[in-house]
Amino acid sequence: MYMRLVQAKYKPDSLSKLRQVYDESIIPRLQTVPGCLCACLIKSEVIRNEGVSLTLWDSKEHAEDYEKSGVFQELLGKAKPYLSDSSEWKIQLSKNLELEYKPIPEEPVVKSYPTIAHTDGKIPDHEKTSKMHLRILSIKVKPGKMEEFSKLYIEEIIPTLRGVKGCRYAFLTENIEEESEAISVTIWDSKEDVDEYENSMIFAKLMKKVEHTFADVYQWRAALEMEYSSRVVTSEDPAVKTYNMLTGRSFQ
How would you write the pLDDT of the chain (252 residues) with one tens digit per residue? Predict the structure, then answer.
């Protein structure tokens, strides 16, 4: 399986229109594309006006064929009226030699990730997603420890998450652009379920099972924090991002 994320900023007050386009045009079109397993539109809870289209694919080849076919550009064109221009501007001369100030178009950021492991089941259809949350946890793993981390995710984390209230789906991917970065994606019935999961200490216990595979800088931070009983932040710390799921559909 293969995960593809398209990140873009949307114009203020245009989210409902973007969601309508996603529901009425993008999802039905993606359903006809070979190898596309599901598609969903999510909104960042932290970054203002950031939307993400998440799609899952049978294989990397199916995702690449989709881009090469021109369908991605076709669907991007449908969303473009509701996406923001860049905050950057450039100065240029017009045909009559007058200075013009024009915004630089801000293109969506596309990222792709091979999936290492996932739970059974599927992402719920759009009519069930009004309160759903998507949680992305990125972790730097020690060189040579990705296989061990993946094994622990399959044998320890996935079975535990199956029994956690509100957790509907989980999968692990590897960032092919950033060396030794693992990304865990979980989908939840509500934000309250996510908060309850973290506050119940289940998350901390799961992290304890795998933290010996984390990058050395994270290990140093953990040891220093224990020694001085204070919070020390590094760039290697596990990073958690949460998103509200606006709409989605499984094609399986």
Answer: 888 888 888 988 899 999 999 999 999 999 999 999 989 898 888 788 888 899 989 998 999 999 899 999 999 999 999 988 654 444 555 555 555 555 555 667 777 777 776 776 666 555 555 578 888 888 888 889 999 999 999 999 999 999 999 998 888 888 877 778 888 888 888 889 988 998 888 988 998 899 899 887 655 555 665 565 454 444 555 567 777 888 888 887
CA angle 133, 189, 184 (to 5 degrees): 50
Alpha carbon 136 to its chain centroid, in Å, reads 6
Number of domains in the chain: 1
Amino acid residing at 60: K
Of 243, 249, 192, nearest to 15 by C-alpha is 243
Name the residue range of residue 211's domain.
Answer: 2-250
Q: Indicate which CATH number applies to the domain containing 125.
A: 3.30.70.100
Q: Backbone dihedral region of 37: left (phi > 0), alpha (psi from -120 to 50 degrees) or beta? A: alpha
Tokens 């590897």 belong to 174
| Cβ(134)–Cβ(204) below 8 Å | no
167-175 and 181-188 strand pairing:
antiparallel
**Furthest-apart CA pair in the chain: how many Å?**
69
